[in-house]
Design a protein that fits this description.
By secondary structure, the protein is mainly alpha-helical. The protein has helices at 5-39, 68-95, 101-122, 128-134, 138-159.
């Protein structure tokens, strides 16, 4: 089987281009090698150990690099978000007069009690972490949510 002539000529042309395109690169390498050997440049800089600054280590930091107060606040924030979600579900089921509305309100009350207990345990004592947590406006948010739950329970009692 014979190969068409245009295909062979295209292959030859491509192989010539590759060979000719490498020539300038090889010449540059040779020129660079001759310059570095003439001037005795080091091939690679010696690696020096980098000291770790002492200020990067904090006694109160956890493995994640955050303070214990931040970790506690994040956990409380997650609990608050869950309680608020339960509250919104309870509001919807109460407004719809659903059969399970009382159960939703009970779950909301349980979640709120867990949140309040966790908050009280977190601020118990007089340490640095407790002082930082008390400085945040978290107690006010819990109180507002508690008032909303009480109002929802009263509304459900009045409608029943």
């Amino acid at each position: 089987m014979s190969t068409p002539t245009p295909l062979l000529s295209a292959l030859r042309l491509a192989s010539r281009r590759t060979a000719t395109s490498l020539r300038p690169v090889l010449q540059q390498r040779r020129a660079l090698a001759s310059v570095t050997s003439q001037h005795n440049f080091p091939i690679r800089a010696p690696a020096a150990p980098v000291p770790i600054p002492s200020y990067t280590h904090r006694a109160f930091a956890s493995s994640s690099g955050r303070s214990p107060a931040d970790e506690i606040a994040e956990r409380l924030q997650q609990m608050y978000a869950e309680t608020k979600d339960e509250f919104e579900i309870a509001v919807e089921s109460t407004e719809a007069n659903a059969v399970y509305a009382q159960d939703d309100r009970d779950v909301t009350r349980e979640e709120l009690d867990k949140l309040k207990k966790a908050w009280e345990e977190a601020i118990e004592g007089e340490g640095e972490v407790q002082t930082e947590l008390k400085g945040r406006a978290f107690a006010q948010r819990i109180k507002e949510l508690e008032n909303a739950v009480i109002a929802l329970e009263q509304k459900a009692t009045e409608e029943a």
